[in-house]
Amino acid sequence: MTMARFYVLEVPENDGVIKIARQDPANTVDSVGPYFRITAASPIVIDRRATGCRHAVWYSAVAGLEGSVITQHDKDALRVEAR
């Protein structure tokens, strides 16, 4: 099965992104070195306002993708889908 997967650096500024990712039971959040890895069988959608992130942090939160593509990354949401 193809999975959507992306990485976020484990720093306090990104805590809101991880908090919201963990609230969705479809997502799995684990640690890989200094990064959080967010994985799901369906598209991963993170609402920016729910994270409490300011725009500068929001647009720099994604540290990497694995077999995935960002299909939305704007002031409203981040959407990562399997490639």
Describe the structure in brief:
The chain is of the alpha+beta class and 83 residues long.
Structural summary, described in words:
This protein has a single domain (4-69), classed as Alpha-Beta Plaits (2-Layer Sandwich), CATH 3.30.70. The protein has 3 helices and 7 strands; from the N terminus they run βαβββααβββ. The chain has helices at residues 15-23, 48-51, 55-58, and strands spanning 4-9, 28-32, 35-40, 44-47, 62-65, 68-73, 77-82. The strands form 2 sheets. Strands 2-3-1-5 form a 4-stranded antiparallel β-sheet, covered by helices on one side. Strands 4-7-6 form a 3-stranded antiparallel β-sheet. The model has no long low-confidence stretch (mean pLDDT 97).
Strand and helix map with partners:
Elements: E1 4-9, H1 15-23, E2 28-32, E3 35-40, E4 44-47, H2 48-51, H3 55-58, E5 62-65, E6 68-73, E7 77-82
Antiparallel strand pairs: 1-3, 1-5, 2-3, 4-7, 6-7
Q: What is the residue-averaged pLDDT? A: 97
| Distance linking N and C termini | 11 Å
Beta-strand fraction estimate: 35-45%
Would you state the CATH class? Alpha Beta
Low-pLDDT stretches: none
Features:
alpha+beta, three-stranded antiparallel sheet, single chain, Alpha-Beta Plaits, four-stranded antiparallel sheet, 7 strands, 83 residues
